Every structure is written in structure tokens, then in C-alpha cells.
Amino acid sequence: MCGRFALRLARPDIRHVPGHEGIDADDWIDEDAFVPRYNIAPRSQAPVLRRGDGPNAGYVLHTMKWGLVPHWSKFEDKTLSTTNARSENLVEGGGMWASIKGRKRCAVLAQGYYEWLTKGKDKLPHFTKHRDGAVMLMAGLYDSVVLEGQTTPLWTFTIVTTSANKDFSWLHERQPVILSTRAALDAWLDTSSQSWTPALTKLVEPFSDSAHPLDCYQVPKEVGKVGTESPTFIEPIATRKDGIQAMFSKQAAKSKSSQPSSSQPKPSQTKRPRSPKASVEDLTFSPPLKKTKTKPALKDEDADSDIEVLDDLPTSPKVKSPPTSSPRKSPAKRKTNVRSEKPSNTKLESFFRKV
Known about the structure:
Helices cover 23% and strands 22% of the residues. The chain has helices spanning 11-16, 87-92, 182-189, 198-203, 244-258, 280-285, 300-309, 331-354; strands spanning 5-7, 27-29, 37-40, 45-51, 59-66, 84-86, 105-110, 112-119, 122-130, 136-145, 154-163, 174-176, 214-218. A hairpin with an 8-residue loop joins β10 and β11.
């Protein structure tokens, strides 16, 4: 089926039908009623391409309402599902399409159409378009009616669908009938016979034009809400600035920037500038100190290393202490003992003098 499509082109571009040479609309009926949009939903106004009235008439654009209201209707029955018309019903004949399929055929212009892929309870919107960016022409039917209480006719259209080809059956079992060539368009719009022909039956078969391939990709879920508009609706979600691919690219760039480049040494290999104090490398690789009373003269580097290592040594190294802190007898007491021996010498000298 086809329940949503996009046509957000400037009006002059729509008149020339981009991607299709020689198709220029001579007139655009109710042009002002159409607002170019990325999210065209059922019951919205959109332009269709049809043949003008009279023999040898050219192409005419006509803004109509999406959702066909049959010409015999007295009021617009919104419960009637006429957004799409199955091609099988047109081929087999009969039904509500019998009176218009031979006389009122048109082509619906679109940049592409949306379809929802069902995955469990989740539905993922996808956008299908021509790979070369040409405007897509979808086969359609149209009708007009003057409803009760109205004085002007209501023009409406429907999009013809067929079975999805093998390349798109994974997405949905149905897809629009796509008129990919000028010959196909002219054959579909030719209503001179006022009847359904075998050539038309051939046109509504599943899409198989390899010369005009289609692209299909996932788009944002927001397109499912009627009334929302964004140019990102027709962009692949993987390549959007906030999409999956962009997210992975940012993560890869962040990871790359956090890693040291090959031109720079790794952090563990980075040499720090030498300072007056010893570096970490000096402390790690300096030889253990020997506990000796005398040390040979040290170079500047070794001396700095020794200074830094002092924090790891015992707090009471073996060095000579001042005399006052030693428990041994002080030299002063020794002098006192010497003085105590002098009196005996003095007595001897006095004795010999007397003699």
C-alpha cells in the first residue's frame, strides 16, 4: 500500500516534472490549494498529472484531495477506504472502480513514498525513491462530485497499488504502480478508448525497470505523525547528523583523539625535563646507599640522588654527637682529676727547698 508520500519541490520545478524530459504542464488547476510538503497524508491536497480536455490536449496539473470520493456520492464518507486502489480489482473488472478506470486516469507526483516495516510490535518507516532523484510518477485514478449542500465540485484521487517485486517484498507485500518512462506515462494517461486494455494490465504489474532503479532506506519515526514536517524525513536515518552513522563517526573520532599519535612518544616513554632535584627515574634506578663512615666524593647527579633518598633512610644515622649529649665523662672532669695530683708534687718541691 501507499499511505504517505513527499513532494517538497518549488512549484516551477513541479511544473517541469524533474527527471522526465518533455513533460511540461500547460496549466495547473487550483495551484494555490497545494502546499509543498515532506509529509503528505490522506485527505491532503496534492497535484496530479492528467490529460487536458479535448483532442490533442497536453498535460495538466490539477490539485486534488487524496482519498477518492465516487461521483455518485451525496456526502463524503470518511469510513470508506479509497486511499489506494488494488490493481487486481482493475484488471478483473467490476466494483467501484469499473466506471472510472477507463476514463479518469492520472499520475501522482512524488519525490518518493513512505512504507512501514513491521518488526514485532515496532514499525519502522522507510522512504523509497528513484536513485537518480527523478520525480516519481505513481499511477492513479481520479473523480469529481458535487456533494449535497455544495456548489463546487470536489476533485479527489487514489493511488493504484500492485504486488511488491522481489526486491521490496521484505518491506511490504504491496507497492505503488510506478510509471518510470515517458511511454508508460502516455499509455496510462491515454483515455481515448474509454476502456481498460491489455496494455494497461501490463503497466500495473510489479515494478521491473532495471534502467530506473529505486533506493529504499529507513527514515525517522516522526514522519508517522500527521502534520509534522522536516527535511530529514526523506534523508537516510543512518547518515543524518543525529543518526546512527553520525553517532559511530563521533565515537570513532573521540576514540582516535584520545589515543596518542604515532609521532608522539607514549606517556610512559615521555622524558621529563631535568630539575635541580632528582627525577622519578633517578629515585627508581639509584643504587642503594652503603652504611660507611666515609664516602668518596660524589658527582652532582649522585649527590642530588642521595638527598632525595634521605626520606627513606633511618631517622637516627650513626654520626658523632656533640660532647654534651654523650653519656661518657666530660673532659672537664678529667682536668679535675689532674689538678688533684698537683698538690702532692708541690709538697715534694717544698721539702727539697728546705733541705
